[in-house]
Structures are given as structure tokens and as C-alpha cells.
Write a structure and sequence with these properties.
This protein is α+β, with helices and mostly antiparallel strands and about 100 residues long. It has one helix and four strands; from the N terminus they run αββββ. It has one domain. It has a four-stranded antiparallel β-sheet with strand order 1-2-3-4, with helices on one face.
């Protein structure tokens, strides 16, 4: 009985360390993509809400004329989701109304 408890604790600690490492890897990949996006203009960032839906983070870079220069999207449940470019969004103008 004592050995099985130690094994379960060991597996839990390994899983926790693996989660921390993979989470750090995901954040560093996003930060690298975000830094390259910041070099392309002013950047706006948004995220989705919800507890049990896949989380979505989007970042869009605009030039001085409010045209989209580039964008990234990261969507998913797990630490294996990576930032991806959104095709078809570049060179569109951003028209907004301020409240």
C-alpha cells in the first residue's frame, strides 16, 4: 500500500513538472510571435471568455493608416496550441466607431 502511494505521488509530481515546462514553452512561442508582430505596427490584443470552451488569443498589427499588416491567433485547450497567422486579414482597413 505504501509503495503504490509513493508511485502515485511520483507520477503526479512528474506530470506537474511536465505541465510547467510545456506551459513555459507555449508562452515563449507566443511571446516570440508577438514580438515579431510588434515590429510591424501598433498591436491590439484580445482573448475569448468562457470556462469550458477552447481559449482564443488574437493579436492584430496595424500601420499608421489603420491597415492590418499582420495577425496571429492561438486557439486550443492544451499547451500544444501554437500561434498561427490569420490568412486573408492582411491589407484590410480597420474601421471603428468609438463609443
Amino acid at each position: 500500500m505504501k509503495d503504490s502511494t509513493h508511485i502515485l505521488i511520483f507520477i503526479a509530481v512528474i506530470a506537474w513538472i511536465l505541465q510547467i515546462g510545456l506551459g513555459w514553452w507555449q508562452v515563449s512561442c507566443f511571446n516570440e510571435a508577438f514580438q515579431s508582430l510588434c515590429k510591424k505596427g501598433n498591436v491590439g490584443v484580445g482573448k475569448s471568455k468562457g470556462r469550458f470552451k477552447p481559449k482564443v488569443v488574437i493579436a492584430i498589427a496595424f500601420d499608421e493608416n489603420q491597415y492590418v499588416t499582420d495577425s496571429i491567433l492561438m486557439k486550443g485547450f492544451s499547451v500544444f496550441s501554437r500561434p498561427q497567422s490569420i490568412e486573408g486579414l492582411s491589407n484590410n482597413i480597420f474601421k471603428h466607431k468609438w463609443c
